[in-house]
Amino acid sequence: MQETADLVSIYIPTCNRFDLLQRAVASCLAQTYSNIEVIISDDGSTPDVQEKIQRLAAVDHRIKLVLTTQSFGACAARNKAIALATGKFVTGLDDDDEFKPNRVELFVKAWYVNPGMAFISANSCIYIDDSLKITSRKKNRLITLQDLLHTNVIGNQLFTLLSSMRAIGGFDDDLQARQDYDAWIRLVEQFGPGCRISEVTYIIHQDHSYQRISNSSRRVQGYDYVFKKHEHKMNSEQKASHKFYRCLYTENPSLWTLLPKTPLRLWPVAIKVISLRMLGYKV
């Protein structure tokens, strides 16, 4: 079958988080779709950590390495991996997250079932701590540029042609946060809409002491940069959506200060997120 002949490149940026990286890599090697290459792009880890990564890479011939002696940021790490990739398709994984075993297989199948799409994405579940898991159960749907200009309805990863990621120039090195959102806007703008499948195939871990690749101190810069870059494409509703999400995720507002200036269609989002925060969860 054509599907099993297609090599899929998976890039994983990392820096000094070897224990988490091991789990991420293991989830790639456990994929039911085996025709993959895993590109670990190390962004200036200490020499002892890089030695561990080299030993990890020796375990499986499908693992490739990009090592740097200094940190250039997550975008640069992703772009270096994309430059090294040789697959027909490409997708990403953060080093503190993991794939469910059938993620790549479902992506490849969905690609051929939905010809002409610019990308395929899927649902995720978030482990906030040992006692709480939030699962996204959104239905199959088409995702257009107009959808994306409201907010990042794709998430932090998608599956697309390697040639498409290279055509848009990869990730914007000037961004320290919201890099994925900016890249997805450019991808859909150039290649058209994509498709989200209903399956939950990605696990986001917030149940560890490390900070996420894009931490809270960088979020404001990310929101403002992306808004300035793409504002001219947005209508008034899309601009209002962007301002709402910026406030929700960078200013930590109370429900009573947020709701009066929130469009009614976004009240359920505000109530859900702030209620979880009131219970002590970091969302």
Describe the structure.
The protein has 283 residues and is of the alpha/beta class. It has helices at 2-5, 18-29, 47-57, 74-84, 103-113, 145-148, 162-167, 179-191, 216-230, 236-250, 255-258, 267-278, and strands at residues 8-14, 36-43, 63-68, 89-92, 98-99, 120-129, 132-135, 141-143, 159-161, 194-205. The mean pLDDT is 92.
Helix content: 40-55%
Strand neighbour order, sheet with most strands: 3-2-1-4-9
**CATH class category label of the largest domain:** Alpha Beta
Backbone structural class: alpha/beta
Low-pLDDT runs of 5+ residues are none
Largest sheet: 5 strands, mixed
What is the H/E order? Answer: HEHEHEHEEHEEEHEHHEHHHH
Distance between the termini: 42 Å
Name the overall outline. globular
Number of helical runs? 12
| Mean pLDDT score | 92
Q: Could you tell me the strand content as a percent range?
A: 15-25%
Number of domains: 2
The CATH topology of the largest domain comes to Spore Coat Polysaccharide Biosynthesis Protein SpsA, Chain A
Based on DSSP secondary structure assignment, what is the total number of beta strands?
10
Give the radius of gyration: 19 Å
CATH architecture of the largest domain: Alpha-Beta Complex
Q: What is the CATH homology-level superfamily of the largest domain?
A: Spore Coat Polysaccharide Biosynthesis Protein SpsA, Chain A
